[in-house]
Structure formats: C-alpha cells, structure tokens
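not sure who needs this but someone in the group chat was asking about Small heat shock protein IbpA from Pelagimonas varians so here u go. i didnt clean anything up, its just raw.
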Amino acid sequence: MTKLTLGSYPHMLGFEQLERLLERTAKSSEGYPPFNIEQTADYAYRITLAVAGFAQGDLSITVEDRQLVVRGRQNDDGGERVFLHRGIASRQFQRSFVLADGVEVGEAIMENGLLHVDLTMSVPETVVQTIQIRKG
C-alpha cells in the first residue's frame, strides 16, 4: 500500500512543513502526564498538565521550532526514604504540543499540582491580492 502525502495532492502546494509537524506530533503520543486543553476565550487557550509531586523547579517550558515542550525531572532524594509501597511514579517526562503560526505562549501558573500554560492566537488580517496579467 502506498502512503499518500500532502505533496501528492496537486492543489496542496507548500504544505510539506505541515506534514512534518503531523508526523512529529504522532510520535509524541505518550500518555504521561495527563493533560487538558480548553478554550478560555475566542482566541485564547489553556493547556493544563497534571504534575502532582513535581516542584516548580523540576519543570521547564520551552518553545522549539513552533513546538511547546514541557519537561519534568524530579531530583531523586537518594536512599533517605524507605518505601514499603511505591505507587507514585517519580519519572521524568517530556510532553510536546505543535503550535500553529500566530499562536503565542503566555504565562505559566503552577497551582495545586496542576501546571497551566496560557496560549493566545493572533487573528490574521484578511488580505486580498490582485495579480496583474501581462502579455507574453
């Protein structure tokens, strides 16, 4: 079976980058930590990640190549504690979200074990361009 790409459609010119973004997003579908995405206004969104057990210093947020990347890494407290049962994982994670053009990352707030990251989208102006036809 042949894989169809956006480049194989003659009316989809210049969408190769979108195809790469879709492939990159499909690869980062790990389920930890769980998250919500909500629309908070017409052009505003909030991503909320459940990061219980992580301190503010254990988390980092970066934007890399139009991709929002949230990383968490807890410092291991060594052998100071003896667990009889350890059901709460203290593992590192990386969660990525592809951002569309015009989406800007606002503030990040840590609250009750939840990390909120606010996003805003600028509304592009509608541009009509007339192309002159010349004789050849």
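also Residues 16-27 form the longest helix (12 residues). if thats useful
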